[in-house]
Amino acid sequence: MRDKNTPITQIMTRNPITISPDQSLTDVKIIFEENSFRHIPVCVEGRPVGMVSRTDFMLVMMGVPSPGESNGNATFNSLMFEALDVNHIMTENIIMIEPNATIGRVGKIFSKNRFHALPVVENDKLLGIVTTIDIVRFFTED
Fold first, then answer.
1. pLDDT by residue (tens digit) across 11-43?
2. Rounded to a whole number, what is the largest CA-CA distance in the chain?
3. CB 85 within 8 A of CB 25
4. What CATH number is associated with residue 118?
5. Rounded to whole angstroms, what are the CA distances from 123 to 1, 59, 78, 126?
6. How high is the pLDDT of residue 100?
7. What is the tally of structural domains in the chain?
8. Dihedral of alpha carbons 89, 39, 82, 63, sign
9. Does residue 3 fall inside a structural domain?
10. What's the helix, strand, coil split of the chain in %, to 5?
11. Residue 2 domain-assigned?
12. Would you state the pLDDT for residue 72?
């Protein structure tokens, strides 16, 4: 049986692809098309300030206002899509964890919240990202 007290650094993705709040949604689209992961940390000078999930992005593509969109009645079209940037769709005020956090602690955070990725941060700088899939793999793979 795997030890839930294992440090999260053993399973996190180090140096993940990041995006800045002022980048375009076209940039987000390209990143998701070229990669299989489902979350992109949003950083300013290496410090996480938000997260964009594939779900957030897809909802915007379908015309559903995202968590960062202040107008609850917004209708999105292709011109508006081009005008929006990451800041409009990212989730802000994200929970961050330190590299000494355990897999068990992170699992509890995931089970109590409605998100599936956490940035791993030390001294306000992004070290990596851990997801619910990482936790599942840890406990199920040989």
1. 999 999 999 999 999 999 999 999 999 999 999
2. 52
3. yes
4. 3.10.580.10
5. 33, 33, 39, 8
6. 95
7. 1
8. negative
9. no
10. 35, 25, 40
11. no
12. 45
Mean residue pLDDT across the chain: 88
Tokens representing 97 are 């964890």
Element containing residue 49 per DSSP (H, E) = strand 47-53
pTM: 0.85
1 is a domain residue: no
Q: What is the pLDDT along the chain (142 residues), one digit of tens a residue?
A: 689 999 999 999 999 999 999 999 999 999 999 999 999 999 999 999 999 999 989 888 777 555 554 444 444 555 566 678 999 899 999 999 999 999 999 999 999 998 899 999 999 999 999 999 999 999 998 7
Distance CA 107, CA 116 (A): 10
The owner of tokens 């919240």 is: 113
Rounded distance between C-alpha atoms, residue 40 and residue 56, angstroms: 11
Give the closest residue to 116 by CA, choosing from 132, 98, 137, 92.
132
pLDDT score recorded for residue 73: 44
Residue reference for tokens 């993940």: 16
- For residue 131, the enclosing domain spans 8-140
Q: How many CB atoms lie within 10 A of CB 5?
A: 9
